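Dear H.,

Thanks for agreeing to be a second pair of eyes. The structure we're designing against is below in token form, covering all 113 positions.
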């Protein structure tokens, strides 16, 4: 089942019910599965972030990622100021934005704001 979620992670992240499968894997998956999801979300941040269910997936990624992987999600979320503003207005938005900014090194954080 985990392999199926990984193979369809982007589509599931944007789906009203499928996003819960991705969030569950981010919380309870193996370190390898979490890493795979983090990289998929990072590469597809624009699409995931602009879907209503995607905000919950990004919040779960920021909450459950390994410390060394956290910065990749944070950078992807804060790279585009318009995307960051869009995220801030979503259901999980303020939490996602605060988590992403706090995960960045200080120099990057000041550039993102």
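And this is the sequence the design step returned. I haven't edited it by hand at all.
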């Amino acid at each position: 089942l985990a392999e199926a979620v990984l193979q369809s992670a982007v589509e599931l992240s944007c789906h009203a019910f499928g996003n819960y499968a991705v969030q569950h894997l981010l919380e309870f998956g193996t370190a390898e599965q979490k890493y795979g999801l983090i990289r998929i979300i990072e590469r597809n941040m624009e699409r995931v972030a602009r879907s209503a269910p995607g905000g919950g997936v990004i919040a779960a990624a920021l909450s459950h990622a390994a410390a060394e992987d956290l910065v990749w999600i944070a950078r992807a979320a804060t790279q585009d100021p318009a995307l960051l503003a869009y995220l801030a207005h979503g259901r999980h938005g303020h939490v996602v934005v605060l988590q992403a900014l706090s995960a960045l090194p200080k120099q990057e954080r000041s550039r993102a704001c």
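Two observations from my side: The radius of gyration is 13 Å. The chain has a mean pLDDT of 93.

Warmly,
E.
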